[in-house]
């Protein structure tokens, strides 16, 4: 057994633990509780997952959040709209381990499990241009009867402000931070930014 781990090894253990762990059942229960608490006060058709500075952590959490919905029989489409730093395709295995299928000329949905698919937006186009184009809203509207939930991964709030362009798309927001890593002033800044722009912050989650 290794007594001392590097910072990178600890981080890898944290990220992997969001998806696969011995207490996966407890994790699903905790996320289901979070989902149930949210839907009391907020619509949860379109849930945005926002990191404060950590794009990878937000993407891992989005996948775990979809796993919890799937475990309870709900269908989801995870949309990786973080065009600055997309991580979802790497997390779910990329083209080598997922079944890809065309959904029109512009979109490719990726199979994740029987209740979950993913869509990685084209990151060759400038983010604000994509968000203003209405393509995300159109995709949600076109598929609202197919999926119970849409989980939207957005750019980290500390460094990018495009989430405000998606205000009319998002029903609720989960803000993700990491214990003993994310600075308190950054958390405060992100919360204030969301409130000042009247964006629907539902929960702030600290990953241990």
What's the CATH architecture?
A: 3-Layer(aba) Sandwich
CATH superfamily membership? P-loop containing nucleotide triphosphate hydrolases
What portion of residues belong to β-strands? Answer: 15-25%
Radius of gyration: 16 Å
Pick out the low-confidence regions: 1-5, 95-106
- Supply the number of helical segments: 8
Mean pLDDT over the full residue set: 82
How far apart lie the N and C ends?
21 Å
Largest sheet: 8 strands, mixed
The geometry reads as globular
Number of strands: 8
Main sheet strand line-up: 3-4-5-2-6-1-7-8
Number of domains: 1
The helical percent reads 40-55%
CATH names the topology as Rossmann fold
Order of helices and strands: HHEHEHHEEEHHEEHE
Structural class: alpha/beta
**What is the CATH class name?**
Alpha Beta
């Amino acid at each position: 057994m290794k007594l001392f781990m590097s910072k990178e090894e600890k981080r890898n253990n944290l990220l992997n633990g969001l998806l696969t762990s011995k207490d996966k059942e407890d994790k699903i229960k905790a996320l289901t509780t979070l989902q149930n608490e949210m839907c009391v006060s907020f619509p949860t058709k379109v849930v945005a997952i926002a990191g404060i500075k950590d794009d990878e952590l937000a993407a891992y959490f989005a996948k775990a959040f979809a796993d919890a919905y799937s475990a309870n029989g709900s269908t989801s489409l995870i949309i990786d709209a973080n065009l600055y730093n997309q991580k979802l395709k790497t997390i779910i295995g990329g083209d080598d381990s997922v079944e890809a299928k065309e959904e029109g000329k512009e979109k490719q949905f990726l199979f994740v499990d029987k209740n979950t698919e993913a869509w990685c937006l084209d990151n060759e186009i400038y983010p604000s241009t994509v968000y203003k184009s209405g393509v995300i809203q159109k995709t949600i509207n076109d598929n609202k009867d197919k999926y119970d939930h849409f989980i939207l991964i957005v750019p980290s709030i500390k460094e990018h402000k495009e989430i405000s362009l998606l205000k009319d798309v998002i029903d609720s927001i989960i803000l993700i931070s990491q214990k003993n890593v994310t600075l308190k002033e950054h958390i405060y800044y992100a919360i204030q930014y969301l409130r000042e722009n009247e964006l629907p912050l539902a929960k702030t989650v600290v990953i241990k």
